Amino acid sequence: MQKIIGTSLLAAGAVTLALTGTARAQVANTEKDGSVLLDSILVTAGRTPVEKEKSGRAFTVITGEDLAERNVRQVSDALRAVPGFSVSQLGATGGQTQIRVRGAEANHLLVMIDGIEVSETSTGEYDFGGLIVDNIDRIEVLRGPQSAFWGSNATAGVVNIITKGGIRNGFEATGTVEAGSDKSVFTSLGLRGGGEKYDISLAAALDNVGGFNVSDFGTQEDGARNGTLNAKVRVDLTDWMEFASTLRYVKRQADTDAQDFTFGSPTYGRVLDTDDETKMEELFGSVGLTATGLDGALTQKLRFSGSDTRRDNLESGAVTSATKGARLNGSYQATYAFDTPDFAAARHSFTGGYEWQRETFRPSHLQHGFSRDAHSFVAEYRGEFLDQFYLNGAVRHDLNDRFDDATTYSIAGAWQLHETGTRFHTSVGTGVTNPTFYELYGYTPSTFVGNPSLTPEKSLGWDVGVEQSFFDKRFVVDVTYFHQDLTDEIATVYQNIGGTFVSTPINREGKSLRQGVEVSATAEILDGLTANGSYTYTDATEQTVAGGARMVEVRRPRHSGALNLAYSFLDDKARVFGEAIFNGKMFDNSFVTGTSTRVSLDSYALFNVGANYKFNENYEVYGRVDNLFDTDYEEVFGYNTKGLTAYVGVKGRF
Fold it and tell me: Residue 386: is it exposed, middle or buried by C-beta count within 10 angstroms (0-12/13-18/19+)?
């Protein structure tokens, strides 16, 4: 297997890279003169970039400036305020963190960093517990089925994270030092520079959190350590060809406490104060070429990317289980754009592409690993008419060596009424999520048995919304209704055998329903005083066996929302802010009775405040307080969450 992968790597490397996501993301960071490209570019809204007001899909863009002004440290915390998103963190900072969108599962959300898919091949989902905010230029969130563009795991949405690129004809160094509650210490260093025909970006960050006890028993603190390195290079080989490359390495460790599943134990099903920990290593990289021709009408992109992840689970210092997974991807696409000024004053672009992907998985309890290949063909059309109508459509056909071939599609449209400040948007699409390697082959033979007969999950979703601006765009509100059906849902069923839960995944019959309403609003109340907020109503229910009553999906609140107020003064040298995060009542699984039962987790509201002050162009001091009122709450049944915490830091830029 290693020989095959190595040969493929060399062959693809000879002709290398650039899919839209990474290549365009780098352009979005800096132009050749070092200037920032238009914020209106939304990379993930298809295979070709589009200005956000021309997208028919529901989206949210979080800029690096937004992240810096909120002093947020974890990406998962930044995403709590995004409409439709639900975050479940396993205890302390660094603990396993799942994110669900619009009531879907965590592995239905495709996560990319600089255009590279970063989910683990074992679970098909990305653990946000190891993703820190430092060095991020922007986060683009796309909601709704996107499999026609990005394949499996984009069933419910896409999160595309773009790190900072280099600077042409310049140099910049940045650094941050922060300390705070729970023995937290954070440091980072960034270097960005370049010449006339090249630019480079290097970044390093270290995050060390002493933590707190996530169990109701004992006193042992559960902390986390994270080291992240990131590099990007871009070189103009000719006037019409560009080379780009990215590399990312993350090594992290998180303490955790395990549940008690000892038969006859009085604490059965409870989270005990154990000496457990998880160690992870993640390596992601890409290389590629982008070529333009025909006076810019033709753009060709060739790319190769890869990822390698290892997860070790330890108890009292000894490895109890481990998994290793890798993903290789090669792609080519060509886009031809042209105008038809005599026909509806239109602009058109057609894109065709091919992708190859290989995924591998090796669990520690087996002497061999598994692999699967897929070949995909993608076609996309994008049209703009009369400077107010925008259309985007795509179709994808996947050839799988492990599952039946699949065809997915996506159609989106937007209508912009410039005179009234009204924009209508709608989209419809299908999605597919292949069974994970865990689900197919298991990972803990004594408690979880895989099911090689599983078939992919399938989804049909649509949304429709209206965005309205008032007072010369000082107040903008967007309301979107969404509906998505999931068939062949993969669910886990449990059996109690001799006091030990043995579980296995199955494909459920019927449809699992997700529907709801997303509301977002931004307002410039006064000069320097701004507000933004969101609210989501989510109705997510799963199929049941033999036509029984539908059950609400776990860890998905029916009501959630966020509100942020910020005020800048002293010629923007000073800024204060306050935010509230609301999470409504939701359900989770409990095993304390000896069987799998549903328990209710209470609703909660978290209030955070902070301030920034710039001494000059080079130095800035900041502080923040999280969970201001020391609210006691749970995101996962049995796991404690952090109380009131405070942090102060200094940023430098040279």
Answer: exposed
Q: Which residues contact 117 (CB under 8 A, 6 or more apart)?
A: 110, 111, 150, 153, 305, 307, 327, 329
* Torsion of the alpha carbons at 362, 363, 364 and 365, rounded to the nearest 10: -130
Return d(Cα 49, Cα 42) in angstroms, integer: 6
Tens-digit pLDDT profile for residues 557-605 = 999 999 999 999 999 999 999 999 999 999 999 988 877 789 999 999 9
The 8-class DSSP code of residue 448 comes to B
Q: Which helix (H) or strand (E) holds 66?
A: helix 64-70
Taking 3-state DSSP, the helix, strand and coil percentages for the chain, each rounded to the nearest 5, stand at 10, 60, 35
Query: What is the CA 535 to chain-centroid distance, rounded?
Result: 20
CA distance 409 to 48: 16
Class of residue 9 by CB neighbours under 10 A (exposed 0-12, middle 13-18, buried 19+): middle
The domains located in the chain, with CATH, are: 2-653 (2.40.170.20)
Residues 6+ apart with CB under 8 A from 485: 459, 460, 461, 511, 512, 513, 514
Can you give the pTM of this predicted structure? 0.90
How many beta carbons lie within 10 A of that of residue 293, not counting itself? 13
| C-alpha–C-alpha distance, residues 462 and 458, integer Å | 14
**Whole-number Å distance between alpha carbons of 450 and 502:** 11
CA distance 606 to 591: 28
Alpha-carbon gap, residue 28 to 51, rounded angstroms = 12
* Beta bridge partner(s), residue 649: 178, 622
Three-state SS for 1-22 is CHHHHHHHHHHHHHHCECCHHH
Alpha carbon distance 578, 564 (integer Å):
6
pLDDT tens digits, one per residue of 186-216:
999 999 999 999 999 999 999 999 999 999 9
The sign of the CA dihedral 338, 341, 342, 345 is positive
Give 114-168 pLDDT, tens digit per residue.
Answer: 999 999 999 999 999 989 999 999 999 999 999 999 988 899 999 999 999 999 9
Instruction: Kindly report the number of other CB atoms within 10 A of residue 600's CB atom.
Output: 11
Cα torsion 501, 542, 478, 568 to 10°: value is: -10
**HSE of 445 in the Cβ direction (CA atoms, 13 Å)?**
4
CA–CA distance, 4 with 18 (Å, rounded to integer): 23
The candidate with the shortest Cα–Cα distance to 439, out of 156, 5, 125, 1, is 125
- Residue 303 identity: R
185 burial via Cβ count (<10 Å: 0-12, 13-18, 19+): middle
